[in-house]
Design a protein that fits this description.
- The structure holds two protein chains of two kinds.
- Chain A is an all-alpha fold.
- Chain A has 14 helices and no strands.
- The longest helix of chain B is centred in the N-terminal third of the chain and has 37 residues.
- The chains are: A mainly alpha, B mainly alpha.
- At the A-B interface, helix 1, helix 6, helix 7, helix 8 and helix 10 of A face helix 3, helix 4, helix 7, helix 8 and helix 9 of B.
């Protein structure tokens, strides 16, 4: 975590462009610029600035935005739930659809079904989200006029961005589930289960799916984590007021405290999600409870 | 190479060659503004229609292809180069160098990749090289990680031990005995990453951080057409389809290489950016 604050800090300081100039305009008098600089603490040395920031972090603060002068933490508190809603919505679509399609592809006796599903999932991986988002917006909002094209609000506003964001995840999940199920179907214990005369449904759910879900859980965790850290593109297109757009605006305006805050919060959530995945592992795979995780 | 790999590589090569010779076969230049034919729908005159400044979209899409494919291929080659060196050193020697290199890798991987790429592309003046650098600086880590793991597994094999016992130097073992073993894995990985890099490049230029207008890139074409989504949807359609088809071909090529060499077990993809 310390390394991350250090790198982000160095990156923001290295960004060309001076926030003070963009705040007051190029032509203001030197006195004003000097005053603002002192107020922001930008006149101190870089090491002092970094030390000051770390002290701020230790107090559980993230500083104030250079532009709005609002506390970054307060802003993030508003934006994170929005992004969380979007990411959860996307996962609600992607997880069941991805797992079902992966299962269907792996277990179907017809080669053609497998081929079609695999093909569709590769296409899903290849679509740029900002484009599929715009296309959905065009069809659903502008032509069919069913849902609002963009903005932040209730469930009606959530559907399109969540659907857009879910596409690549759905494709990845389909592929992982298919590979993993294919591998497990060849295992001895599946044959044993079949020999015991268990029903096909029971074999699929209890013996195959439960074991196949372990790598799937990793992917769900990773994807969810990366969505939290900013579905920058999706949020930009649909005007969804989440943390990705907030970070992007911060970067564009050289609003250092905002950038730092966003990166720290998203990295933290990424780490937390990974921890969660590890816990889920233990639930899914009893062996790990005995021997510990070794990934 | 398998049939799919050949076919998809052929499609991309065709697209790339077309984009190089486009000025010779299309009567319109990519930046030729014609205010008499603004926002014309696709037709005989302009197969993909024209944009809000009357520029021929087919010409612009082809011009963009040169840039997108060029950037992705360059970024993959450089990432692979760095990844190979770091992976070989880290995996073979272990110890302190391994620890330092891998903590750098972990540190970079802990960042949200698109945000990091955005940050890096803001550091340098926008342009072709900046995009390549941004994608590479984020991308080399996954190559290094994978190759390190692979080197670790073959370091202990008996032929490496044999080479050591007849007195080969470390350099010779690395270059002659271990490096060639890493080639199939590297190729597969590169093939799988290319599709993701096409998407990352498109995303960066969509956000205005790529090669700057008026030069046509697929991402920036989509971003400048957003305002006309309702009145001229073909402006968004053509560059998007190009991105998707190119990424699709690269992904299929990667998959087919993977099946052929059977070096990676998971169905993981080369996709980074969301």
């Amino acid at each position: 975590m310390l390394g991350i604050t250090l790198i982000t800090f160095a990156l923001t300081k290295a960004l060309p462009g001076d926030p003070v100039y963009s705040m007051v305009g190029e032509r203001s008098d030197p006195e004003t610029i000097k005053r603002i600089r002192t107020a922001l603490g930008a006149d101190k040395g870089i090491v002092d600035q970094y030390r000051g920031y770390l002290l701020l972090l230790l107090r559980g603060e993230l500083g104030r935005s250079y532009y709005t002068n609002r506390k970054v933490l307060d802003d993030i508190r508003v934006k994170v739930p929005m992004t969380f809603m979007l990411a959860a919505g996307a996962m609600l679509i992607a997880v069941p659809a991805g797992i079902l399609m992966g299962l269907a592809a792996a277990l179907s006796s017809r080669v053609r079904t497998d081929r079609i599903i695999t093909g569709v999932s590769v296409i899903g991986l290849s679509l740029p989200v900002f484009w599929s988002g715009l296309m959905l917006m065009y069809l659903v909002s502008l032509k069919l006029k069913i849902l609002p094209p963009s903005g932040t609000g209730g469930l009606r506003y959530l559907v399109l961005p969540a659907l857009t964001l879910s596409l690549p995840a759905m494709a990845t999940l389909t592929r992982i589930t298919r590979t993993s199920v294919n591998e497990i179907t060849t295992m001895m214990y599946v044959r044993t289960a079949r020999a015991k005369g268990l029903s096909e449904l029971r074999i699929t759910v209890v013996h195959i799916l439960r074991n196949a879900l372990i790598p799937v859980a990793t992917v769900i965790g990773l994807d969810f984590g990366s969505y939290l850290s900013g579905a920058v593109l999706t949020e930009t297109i649909f005007g969804w007021d989440g943390i990705g757009r907030y970070a992007m605006e911060g970067i564009m305006k050289r609003d250092y405290p905002v950038i730092m805050g966003c990166v720290i919060v998203s990295t933290l959530s990424f780490v937390l999600i990974n921890l969660l995945v590890d816990i889920v592992y233990h639930y899914l795979d009893p062996r790990l409870r005995l021997y510990g995780t070794d990934r | 190479m398998g049939l799919t790999a050949k076919a998809t590589a052929g499609v991309i090569a065709l697209l790339f060659v077309l984009s190089l010779i486009a000025p010779l076969i299309i009567p319109y230049g990519a930046d030729m503004i014609d205010l008499d034919s603004i926002k014309e729908p696709p037709g005989w005159e302009h197969p993909f229609g024209t944009d809000n400044k009357g520029r021929d979209i087919l010409a612009r899409v082809l011009a963009g292809g040169k840039i997108s494919i060029g950037i992705s291929v360059a970024a993959v080659i450089i990432s692979l180069g760095i990844g190979l060196v770091v992976g070989l050193v880290s995996g073979y020697f272990g110890g302190v160098p391994d620890m330092i290199l891998m903590s750098v890798v972990d540190l970079i991987l802990a960042f949200p990749s698109l945000i990091l790429a955005i940050g890096i592309s803001l550091l340098l003046p926008p342009g072709l090289y900046t995009v390549i650098i941004a994608i590479t600086l984020v991308g080399w880590t996954s190559f290094a990680r994978l190759i390190r793991g692979y080197v670790l597994s073959i370091r202990e094999s008996s032929y490496v031990e044999a080479a050591r016992s007849i007195g080969c130097s470390n350099t010779r073992i690395l270059l002659v005995h271990i490096l060639p073993q890493c080639i199939p894995l590297s190729l597969v990985m590169a093939g799988m990453k290319l599709g993701g890099y096409i998407l990352t490049e498109a995303a960066l230029s969509f956000l205005g951080l790529g090669v700057q207008p008026p030069t046509a890139t697929w991402g920036s074409m989509i971003s400048s057409s957003r305002a006309f989504l309702n009145t001229a949807p073909w402006m968004v359609l053509a560059p998007g389809i190009c991105i998707a088809v190119t990424a699709l071909c690269f992904n299929l090529m990667g998959d087919s290489l993977k099946d052929r060499y059977d070096v990676m077990k998971t169905g993981a993809s080369g996709q980074d950016a969301v």
